[in-house]
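Quick question, first post here. What does this chain look like in 3D?
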Amino acid sequence: MPHNQTPGPVLVVDFGAQYAQLIARRVRECQVYSEIIPATTPLADIVERKPAAVILSGGPASVYTPGALPAPDGLFESGLPVLGICYGFQLMIRDLGGVVAKTASGEYGAATLQLSAPGASAADGGLMVGLPERQQVWMSHGDTCTVAPPEFTVTASTASTPVAAAEDKARRLYGVQFHPEVAHTDHGLEILRQFLDVAGCRADWTTANIIDEQVDQIRATVGPGRAICGLSGGVDSAVAAALVQRAIGARLCCVFVDHGLLRKNEAEQVEQDFVAATGVDLVVVDAQADFAAALSGVTDPEAKRKIIGREFIRAFEQAARQIAARDADGQGGDADGRGGDADGRGGDADGRGGDAGGRGGDAGGRGGEADGRGGEAAEFLVQGTLYPDVVESGGDRGGPGGKGGPGGKGGPGGRLTASIKSHHNVGGLPEDLGFTLIEPLRTLFKDEVRAIGSALGLPPQIVWRQPFPGPGLAIRIVGEVTSERLAIIREADSIAREELTAAGLDRHIWQCPVVLLADVRSVGVQGDSRSYGYPVVLRPVTSEDAMTADWARVPDPVLARISTRITNEVAEINRVVLDITSKPPATIEWE
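> Answer (accepted):
Ran it through. C-alpha cells below.
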C-alpha cells in the first residue's frame, strides 16, 4: 500500500543531465507537481521544501571524475524517498557500499532488461511490480554498477549491466541504470508512476494550467508594451505567437523572415495557414541577400548557427523599426486609437480587425494603444524556443512546465548540462540583443507544445507539421551554403515530404531531414553515361520529445519511391542513403 499521500513537490536534483527537465516533465504527466533544483542544493534546503520525494538525475560525468558532483550530503539517511537514475543511481550505489566499475565500453541506446524477480505482487511495493519479465530500456552510460549495496535487492539486469535496477524498500531508496523518462524505455512511465506511488505523492496537478499561467506571466512582463514574434510557420513559433496574442492581443505583430533557407513553398504556407487561422498582423522581411552574404564561404556548423542567429536579430530589429514607422503614420488603430478589445484579443466581428489594407481601423484593430503608443518600436521579441534547444545549447533554464516565466529566467540554480550544439535562437544570439526575450515554451517539449496548440485552436496542419529547424536548410547542407545547393536540397526535401505524406506516415514519423553532403561526390550511371553527383541522406526518425529518437522503419516501397524520384527529378543527385542511427549517440539534425 502507498504511504500517506503528501502534497509536497517532487524535487529533481540536476547533475547536468540532458534529460533532467524531461524527468520533471514525466513526473507531471503522472499529475504530480515537480521542480528542478541544482545538485549543489544543501540537504537542509531540500528538507525545508518538504518534498514528497527526490529524484537524482543522470549527468555527463563519471562518478570517478575529479570534482564530480556528489549527492546532497545526508540525503540517503534523511528518510526521504529517493530514486536514482543513471549517474544518480551510481552515486547511490557507490555511497551506500556497492561497486561502480569502470568498463572498457559503454552501453548506449536500446537494451533488453531482464527482471530478477518477475511476477512480484503489488504488496511488495517495488518499481518493477507487474512489468514484463523482458522489456526494452534506453541506456546511456560508461561506468557500470556491478555489486549492489548491503540490504539492497537487485531487481533487474542487462547483458552488459549486472545491476541495472536495485532497491532498498525499507528505506524507500530505489535506483535504475537506464532512463525511465525517455519514450524509448517501454515501461518507463509505469516505473516512475510506481515510484511516486510508493513515495506517497499526491496526483493532483495537470498541465492544463500552463496556458493560463503563461498568459498571466506574459501580460505581467510586457505590461503596456508591444512585441514582435519571429514566425517560421512551424508549430513552435506558431504556438508561442498564439499564446502571446491571447495575452496582449493587437500589441503583437508577427514577423516572417524570408532568409532564403526555407523549404519549398514555405512562405506561402505561413500566410495561408497561420494568418488565415489567427488573423495575426504579419510583416514579411526579405533578407535573402543578407543571409547569403553572411553565410558565404562558411562551412563550420557552429559558425553557421551563430551567423543565422545574429542575422535573424538584425532582421527583427529592422522589422520593429518598420512597424513603428508604419503605425506612427496612422496605419494602425481605430478612431480612438485603441487597437484591442477588453480581453486583449483584438479584431472585429470576424476576429481579424483591420481596414481594407488589413492593418487596423475598426474596433479592436491592429495598431495603436489607448495611451497613444501606436508608433513606438516593439521592446519584446517572442521566440518559439523549446527546452531541447536550450539543453543542447548548454543554456540556463527556468523551472519546468512554464514556472520559469516568459523569459525563462526563473527556477533555481545554474546550468550544468554539457553543450552539444548552439541553436540559432539560444547560443546563437548576439550579445547586443536589442530586445527583451519572451519565450513561453522554453521549458516545454514538442508534444506538450502540440497539445497547447490544439487547445488554442490552431489547425492540425500547423500543430502536426514536421519540425523544421530555425536555421533552415543551411544546416542540412554539410558544407558551404550556396544558391545552387539550396535549390538541390529544396527539391529533394519536397519529394521526400510528398511521398511520406502520400504514404500516410506524417503522424508516425517525427521528422525526416534530407541532408546534402555537399563536399562529397560519387560516381554513378545515368542515361548510359557516367555521372559524378551529390549523395543525399534520408534521416527519418521517430520521437516523442526530440530528447531521444530512433530511426523510423519506413516501408521499403516508400523508400524506393523517394530514392527513384530524387535521382530522376534532381539531376545533380545520383545517390540516396539512409541514416539508421538513434539519438543518442547522434543528434536528429546532422549539423
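The chain has a mean pLDDT of 82.
The longest strand covers residues 529-538.
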